[in-house]
Amino acid sequence: MNIADIATREYLEVDVGTRMGKVRSSFENGNPKGIIVTDDGAYEGVISERKVLQSHVEDDAKVAALIKPSRAAPAPTVDRDEGVRETARILIEGNTKIAPVFEHDDLWGVITDDAILEAVIDNLDAIDVADVYTEEPITLAEDDGIGKAINHLREHGISRLPVLNENGYLTGMVTTHDIADFAIRENERMTQGDRVGDNERMLDVPVYDIMNSPVETTSLETSVRGAIETMLEFDYAGLAVTGDDDRTVVGVITKTDVLRALTYTEEEQMDVQITNISQLGTLSRADIVERIESVADKYAKMQVHHAHVRFHEHKEKLRGQPLIRCQIRLRTNKGQVAGSGEGYGADSAFRIALDKLERNVLELKGIQSDEEYRGQLLRKLNEL
Predict the structure, then answer these.
(1) Helix and strand counts by DSSP (H, E) for the chain
(2) Same domain for 220 and 167?
(3) 61-78 in b/e burial notation, b at 16+ Cβ within 10 A?
(4) Are residues 73 and 151 in the same domain?
(5) HSE of 344 in the Cβ direction (CA atoms, 13 Å)?
(6) Sign of CA dihedral 367, 369, 370, 372
(7) In the sheet where 249-254 sits, what is the strand order?
(8) Of the candidates 96, 100, 102, 95, which has an alpha carbon nearest to the alpha carbon of residue 79?
(9) Which residues contact 270 (CB under 8 A, 6 or more apart)?
(10) What pLDDT does 368 receive?
């Protein structure tokens, strides 16, 4: 299956000279997956709501202020005849929910994560939420401030945070869209003279005041198809995964998790997914694969089926090297295992995260019994 029949020519486009205030209003009013940015008709990049939220660009600034600094990073693009599996990989590695589709070097349309998932939904009965969800989610307490929520979203590169009450039970969910919507409404209410003080108070507003409640949830035993149908019905990007009591959060499943499953292969070589690949610097994909394999090979009974490596660049620098956070998550026949770390430059951050990963692998070793990875998942998805 290729994306020729599921890409669309209907998309929102802005020029690099457009005011950021107008872009923020577009996200508030239309809730698009992303906005295509052009410069005199030529494709420049994609703006997501998360990217707008994470930026400190004022409303009067031009879109170019958000796009130009990242010009060194290749913008994700897709050929109209590309396959579903590779397109899913492009969206994940570009950390985006939308990508431009080109035909003979001309911008033809866009492809979204929803379009891919809707096209393959019949195949998703083969797997359960337990096969693809992310364990140990980052959470908030009800009285945590919005500032803390923003820091978590930035640091971990995620889009949603379950909110727990004092007993540790799920009571709500906060997303990047909730925070952006709140910030836009508050900024429109403020006068210019009050803005500095009010902005500081905004960050102290408890997440309880803006969270979604009650929360749509799913269970480990639910089919991925069922979870995706719920997300598409309510226009959610993810769901909280709860345990047997339906109140304790054990993980989160997102559309990105499912897209990542579409990239799994049965090849002998480890399947490695890298998010924000543009931040690698001198570190190569081959280096990453080799060093992860060196850890996995020390523990023969642990079979790694998929590795996800994510880099996130902070503004802080030392001797020209940016501070980077690296997160490594392995999906193995013994369950999920992860490690993270920060360092100046991708190589340093990756090395620290890999050391933490190996310590966690040692802890995992012998605790859980072997279980065969579900080949049905791979065989079913390989038919796409």
Answers:
(1) 13, 17
(2) yes
(3) ebbbebbeeeeeeebbbb
(4) no
(5) 6
(6) negative
(7) 134-135, 249-254, 238-242, 217-219
(8) 102
(9) 289, 292, 293, 296, 304, 306, 307
(10) 42
Residue 306's DSSP bridge partners are 271, 331
Q: What is the pLDDT of residue 369?
A: 37
- The Cα–Cα gap between 326 and 352 comes to 8
Note the pLDDT of residue 218. Answer: 96
Q: Strand, coil or helix: what is 165?
A: coil
**How far, in Å, CA of 257 to CA of 316, rounded?**
30
User: In whole angstroms, what is the distance from residue 219 CA to residue 170 CA?
Assistant: 14
Q: Are residues 239 and 289 in the same domain?
A: no
Looking at the structure, do residues 169 and 208 belong to the same domain, yes or no?
A: yes
Mean of pLDDT over the chain: 82
243 strand-pairing partners = none
Instruction: Identify the residue whose tokens are 């009285």.
Output: 143
Distance CA 98, CA 46 (A): 8
Question: What is the tens place of the pLDDT at every residue in 256-282?
Answer: 889 888 876 555 456 788 888 778 888
Domain that holds residue 324: 266-381
DSSP β-ladder status, 78-79 and 98-103: parallel
Angle (CA) 25 188 206, round 5°: 100
Residue 104, judged by CB atoms within 10 A of its CB (0-12, 13-18, 19+), counts as: exposed
Amino acid at 315: K
DSSP for residue 368: S
pLDDT tens-digit map of 46-88: 887 777 766 667 788 888 887 765 444 456 789 988 988 889 8
**Whether the predicted model's global pTM rises above the 0.70 cut:** no
Q: How far is CA 315 from CA 54, 152, 312, in A?
A: 12, 16, 10
Residues 201, 288 within the same domain:
no
Q: Which helix (H) or strand (E) holds 64?
A: helix 64-67
Distance CA 36, CA 11 (A): 8
Structure tokens at 24: 């923020």
Are residues 120 and 384 in contact, defined by beta-carbon separation less than 8 angstroms? yes
